[in-house]
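Revision sheet: structure tokens.
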Amino acid sequence: MGAHLEYKYAEDVNTSYRNDVIENIERFYCFGIYAKKYCNISNRFLINGRAVVDYGFPTLSEGYTDETLFRLGFRPGLTYFFSPHFALAPLNF
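Predicted:
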């Protein structure tokens, strides 16, 4: 069980006529909780599943702030444990 925070910053730039003009700026804030379950394939190689619940809201430079995001999902993954306290998780989606 755990919690996470997410922040995203994006700019839409108009590059026509050789002048870079920022048309839109988006900032996205999100927080959520998750639970992770591991299933052994071998002694050190495990499949994991992560259930996620997120709540977020974007803010746009044009003033549109009426949106909110509610995200509920499941993310599979693979994990290899080198030791009991150190692991590599290259395929967590």
